[in-house]
Fold this protein.
Amino acid sequence: MSLITSLLLLWAAVTAIFVTVMIWKSIVGLKEEDVVILDPAEANQAAEQQQIIAKVERLTIWAKRFGLASLTLLLVTGTLWMYQGFVAFNSARIP
């Protein structure tokens, strides 16, 4: 298996994880309220909202990491592919 094929498989896996985290984040975020006005009797709902916000923030960190990893792998793979094409073109052979 060539290096480019390995990088593309790794990129596909990282991108699939990234998409999964983004979907999970949007599903968790559906329960989040933008403005919550509660009286003291509804303090448990405030705690629940804080837990949801904390979970969304953790998922945002992971989404950023996997998104950056996906972009980096795509750029590295594309650069390597272009380099191999350039070398093959200049040496007049087909890779």
